[in-house]
Specification:
Length: about 260
């Protein structure tokens, strides 16, 4: 059954956020940071994903204290999760040295809120560094559902090398969108349906600036995939005209992992 891409008559979803981090080098396609989720994870176990996770109550509290809304809370969550999962401080004002980032990461892992971790290091947020790119809210029956906002961000010039947290993720890679798609097709990496569609869209861009320009042409529209029969096969589909070059895929291949 097809569901509209709005929020009406759909099961509850967990608010989440993720960061698509660009690392650029002259003369080549930008690389994106991706992490491999641990095999024990309930959602997307073993899959390559962008750093991200749930929006916590502390993220909402900090957003409210800053006079912001759900979008700001999502940006804060994307910033926090990137520190936790990869040891990278994107969306933070000024330059933080490796020691400060490591201390923030340890505090967050110990249960501190983002506001507390920032205060301990005398740091402040710069959420404008994150550019809204996409929002996906599936409606699969009998599955955990996330309402995920995707944000684009550039790797800070003086950022330390990212490192795995050895908890939620077990590997991280810098790779072009095209390289990840090809590795998935060869069976070397697992990616879920939303990640594949977003990688196909990201593969169109030769720079961070091009990706940001695309967000102006295609304002964020909440994507809720639906199933329908096309050419005698069941396909998983998303709307046309919102920036994605591929908008349907046979369900048997879409679920291959």
């Amino acid at each position: 059954m097809r569901l509209a891409s709005g929020m009406t008559d759909m099961p509850p979803a967990i608010p989440a956020a993720t960061a698509v981090i660009f690392r650029e080098s002259e003369g080549s396609a930008p690389e994106l940071l991706m992490v491999e989720r641990a095999a024990r994870m309930v959602f997307a176990a073993g899959a390559m994903v962008f750093p991200g996770g749930r929006i916590d109550p502390g993220d909402h509290a900090l957003a409210a204290a800053m006079g912001g809304d759900d979008d700001l809370a999502a940006r804060i969550a994307a910033i926090r999760e990137t520190i936790e999962e990869a040891g990278l401080a994107i969306g933070v004002a000024g330059a933080l040295d490796a020691g400060s980032i490591a201390a923030m990461r340890a505090a967050l892992h110990a249960g501190a809120t983002m506001g507390e971790a920032l205060a301990d290091q005398g740091a402040a947020l710069d959420p404008a560094q994150l550019v809204p790119f996409a929002r996906w809210r599936p409606a699969h029956a009998h599955m955990r559902i996330f309402d995920t906002r995707f944000y684009l961000a550039q790797l800070p010039a003086d950022a330390p090398p990212p490192t795995v947290d050895a908890n939620e993720n077990v590997r991280l890679v810098w790779a072009t969108a095209r390289d990840v798609l090809e590795a998935s097709d060869r069976g070397e990496m697992a990616i879920i349906f939303p990640t594949r569609r977003n990688l196909e869209r990201l593969a169109q861009f030769g720079s961070f600036a091009e990706a940001v320009a695309d967000t102006a042409r295609n304002p964020v529209t909440t994507v809720t995939p639906w199933a329908e029969e096309r050419g005698g096969r069941q396909h998983l589909c998303i709307p046309e005209g919102i920036g994605y070059p591929v908008t349907s895929e046979p369900i048997d291949s879409a679920m291959r992992g």
